[in-house]
Amino acid sequence: xxxxxxxxxxxxxxxxxxxxxxxxxxxxxxxxxxxxxxxxxxxxxxxxxxxxxxxxxxxxxxxxxxxxxxxxxxxxxxxxxxx
Amino acid sequence: xxxxxxxxxxxxxxxxxxxxxxxxxxxxxxxxxxxxxxxxxxxxxxxxxxxxxxxxxxxxxxxxxxxxxxxxxxxxxxxxxxxxxxxxxxxxxxxxxxxxxxxxxxxxxxxxxxxxxxxxxxxxxxxxxxxxxxxxxxxxxxxxxxxxxxxxxxxxxxxxxxxxxxxxxxxxxxxxxxxxxxxxxxxxxxxxxxxxxxxxxxxxxxxxxxxxxxxxxxxxxxxxxxxxxxxxxxxxxxxxxxxxxxxxxxxxxxxxxxxxxxxxxxxxxxxxxxxxxxxxxxxxxxxxxxxxxxxxxxxxxxxxxxxxxxxxxxxxxxxxxxxxxxxxxxxxxxxxxxxxxxxxxxxxxxxxxxxxxxxxxxxxxxxxxxxxxxxxxxxxxxxxxxxxxxxxxxxxxxxxxxxxxxxxxxxxxxxxxxxxxxxxxxxxxxxxxxxxxxxxxxxxxxxxxxxxxxxxxxxxxxxxxxxxxxxxxxxxxxxxxxxxxxxxxxxxxxxxxxxxxxxxxxxxxxxxxxxxxxxxxxxxxxxxxxxxxxxxxxxxxxxxxxxxxxxxxxxxxxxxxxxxxxxxxxxxxxxxxxxxxxxxxxxxxxxxxxxxxxxxxxxxxxxxxxxxxxxxxxxxxxxxxxxxxxxxxxxxxxxxxxxxxxxxxxxxxxxxxxxxxxxxxxxxxxxxxxxxxxxxxxxxxxxxxxxxxxxxxxxxxxxxxxxxxxxxxxxxxxxxxxxxxxxxxxxxxxxxxxxxxxxxxxxxxxxxxxxxxxxxxxxxxxxxxxxxxxxxxxxxxxxxxxxxxxxxxxxxxxxxxxxxxxxxxxxxxxxxxxxxxxxxxxxxxxxxxxxxxxxxxxxxxxxxxxxxxxxxxxxxxxxxxxxxxxxxxxxxxxxxxxxxx
Lengths: 83, 885
Fold this sequence. Notes:
By secondary structure, chain A is mainly α. Chain A is 54% helix and 0% strand. Helix content of chain B is 58%, strand content 6%.
């Protein structure tokens, strides 16, 4: 799975699940998701479940934070590091 | 250190070429010009930041924000920021650490600071040992257990008690986060950063700021353009100051003691003001994080418009965000990941409940390190259980249906959606107010009784006006809705956008600070009309509210176990109090009698009490020795009252009673005067009446000086209720019947009984005064009522007028010492900040004023102590009290 594919899938999931009706162009790869208030704890856990199921990886509790999941780029990097 | 933000223009300054030709020279000229422009711009930004910080320090000074120690720290921050600004990046962190350690020394003194730092370094050393995590955790737990034993006094410690709360604040939670995060960090932080994390500059003045996320602390260090970071810090400092001034307004003008709730209007005011008092915490946190921004720590907000939460989850996410993040990291996510195999719903519910149970216990853990006690109360448990249950319900709903989110660019006007949001916000706010009042109540029973009393409704006791509160709330809501934080500067918006954001934030900061600074100038606010001038004048000083002043007064009488709320300024005073600051009956000089006299001084005792020698004579009086029978040709004055009369905090010869006798003796003319001290601390008017009849009158006084305070009515009620609750039978018909009619019995909670008797407290107090005056007159003594204000007290003038009026009606001659301390620095005349009793100078002042009254007041002429009096033999014969003051 290449990086662009992961990025696209993650972005699509976030738009559909948490930002329905928002302009996709507004959601950039560096848009802050956790520190920007888009991903709260419940949304973070949903996102974790999504990437775990989609890519067959397992995330650790300490990775459910802004260091690893704050932007689409961060999420993409984390997923790729576990593949 | 990694990922520090460096602006593009800064980079260009350092790339001037070494050798140039033709067009290269022209290019170099442009570069130089650009560099100079940048330097000029940076100088401008620095000056603008320094101006804001300087004005903030002025506002902190003018409004006595927090404490004098904080003012010193703010001044240190000002100069520290100026130096830090010009330092190269590698030196900034070491400088911040040095400044933080210097701040500790500045506030606590070098010796105490050395202990604090040494203990802290020991803890950090243990947490950083190159051994396996479980071993490090075990070692730290063992150390914590030893420290906990020392905290509760199992063994003496060589360091001052002031070390405990600061040490606790710096380490009780941060060590846990530090251990957790360092397990997973890819590159260890430099030691300066690790030490700076624990010894944060503002902590020495703010022990209630224990939690900072270590990873966030590292990640956000200069992660944005530095002027933006500094400017956001200034904005938050300004916001913090505004919160603290608003808090003070609520604290002085809005709070209502539970015992005075007499209608639903009162109840609403009580609950609203209790919740609004949280402004102090958010104000402090904004100040703290704002200060840290000035040194490059681009930490996130700690509170975000929490009064505008639209659901319980929203509330949890907006209030004390650092705490929420701490609980998520150490409890919520680990619990959820462990439990999710049993289903997401189960894991969600269980991990949320773990968070709230943990929050409850950790609050008590926090109070333990800060205050030395581990309070686990029913109302704490109820508060966290109810809030936890509501958050669980909200979470389940959000997990199923999601919640509205936006990217920020979209702004549409949907009237229906706004109306629903407004209703939800109002509902959440109202519910949290109610819940908050439960949390802050003395007991669940007392909280329930508030509702019962409000339902019973006694309109004549309703608060004069609470109209300002809804207005305040409306203003806050409107302000909060309209104001939005400036977008986070990532540097990607370009210099123009960054500059615009910087200037906008500077403008907003100045818009808060400048009016405050101007308003704080006496020459300005005194021109605003009497009412507004009085309000501003009041807001400019730190003192206890009426309710807390009563509590402080109670603290002279009993050990208070509930002085443990994070809003309580009283607790801060207690923190400054020497550890051996006892109540008189806890010393060898006095004992509790178990009867209506409550306390008596024991004869022939000399002990140390409140830093002075406290001695009693053979009659159990704090005085020199006197014969029981009055010597011929002597005018005797018996002085009755409580701790002021007993002279708590001053030496045996320094009480105003002793000084008055010295002044009368030094004056020389007239009869010999003896002034006898029957004062005992921790007693009330009822006990003074008992003591007058059972003891003082046997000494054949010519005058009885009863020294009263504005709290006499409250204390009269307090004593009678306490007596009944202790199972004593009141031998007096009037109070016995009054209590019975009000429905007060042995089982009535103290605060409920006080509320039931509130409408009749003047009646009860008059009965006490009448009893004293009549008993005095019956034995030929002139009853004199001395109204003595307490230092730094703020009581309704009506209370003073009422008790003075009652005394006159009872037949006392009145000496009114109102205004005694006007124009004086309270610290010059009181024992300490934590104890408002007069010191030696204060007692000397009281003695002089009483001496003048005895020498000049016509109504006291019959004592024969005035110039030209023939002898003392006629004193007490056929006197009629007068009513001149």
